[in-house]
Amino acid sequence: MPFVAINTTTSSRMHISQVPKPLTEVTRDCWACQLCEQPMLIRGGVLVRRHFYHLQQCSTDYRFHADTAEHLLGKDWIVQQLQHELWGYTGADIEMEVPIPEIKRVADVLVTFPNGWRIAHACQLTPISLDEIKQCTAEYVQQGIDLYWWMGLSALNKPGVKDWLVSTYGFALIISFTETGERL
Question: Which of 70, 110, 125, 158 supports an S-S bond with 153, CB 3.0-4.6 Å?
Fold first, then answer.
């Protein structure tokens, strides 16, 4: 359930919120997956947040997992926090779902500052091992991208994860939701 697709007319990345009338103006040939270039359509409405979806399964070799509704909310909430709550991010370009081709990963949120410094923010809500966190972090750092983890739901259930975050960063960013999916 990605929020971002490629506009096939302009070849530009588009967030679903930038599409003025998504359910009336979209045709089968308007949008493509930014990873596999397959056609995408839009779904959602009153009960489900609008998002792009594949007509066929994504055929990319990027390491990513299908987003849950909570993950989409989490990414969106992180963007809102970075844009409105952190004065140090003023003037930075904040994008969601940005492919990092060198490591075949998609940054949940990527912040690019005018001087070129990049910071990725990962919203992790499912279990992940400490080794996977370390490997992913090292891959981003090797590309010159700092990485911060926002952990929630069952992601903190693996032994040592929270301790590693605190010892590495000096803090652990925790994100939690109510039963209705709202951010706390």
Answer: 125
